[in-house]
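Hi P.,

Sorry for the delay on this. The queue was packed all week, but I finally got your sequence through. Input first:
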Amino acid sequence: MADKEYFMINSIVKTIRLIEELVKRKEFDLVELTRRLEYPKTTVHRMLLTLKSLDYVKQNESNKQYGATIKLFQLGHRFLENNDLFKTAQPIIEELSEEIGESVYVLERDNLDVVVTARATSSYSLRQDEQIGFRYKTYNSAGGRTILANLSLAERRRLFRGHKMEPCTPKSPTSYSQLESMLAEILHQGHAVEHEEYGIGISGVAAPIFDHMGCVSASVTITGATARMRPKVFDLIQKVKKASEKISTGIGFKNNESFEVRN
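Then the structure:
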């Protein structure tokens, strides 16, 4: 964690870290949670008991392991219900997914990660099938790079300062200079295309989502098997751009110049 700010309340920080661990899998025992968090065992146990009393944690009576409850999911669901981007994008990407037969996602940036915040999945057995809340590095996919391309150079340099690239496949970018070259092309074209840079056998096309201030912190992405995507990539680019325009307009973006110049 970065240097502590004066306002940080240590007990809240510890509890949030515990919750972040608990949602990574179904159950944990006390010893493993203590090891992962590097807190005293008594501290972790008291936090678990507190969360259990509030119905955010449950304990398996047979093996005594702890896990998160549906109440945490309900918090996330309430957030989505009040999220303008989700409410606007979901029907648009569902319609697009049904039309093209591929999975469509909305990704939002969180520092150097992107997080899935809306999804409409393909009926094909071979598909990318990420759940809402799933996160991965921005630079390894078309959707993430589309967002990065629309940040200022100063902001990108700040984000990547001291960062070691974590490629997903042999085709992923491995250096910041390589990435910058890709981002310049994406910004010029107004869309991104990737073939097997996030996952072997998977391709994607993406376009930026502009908010009411004209800023980009999200993108809409079509993904599918490379064998299906390559023959229709030009058509999919036009469709993903159209979807991004609809979503941007729906959340308050007024200036259509960004779309007209690049289409």
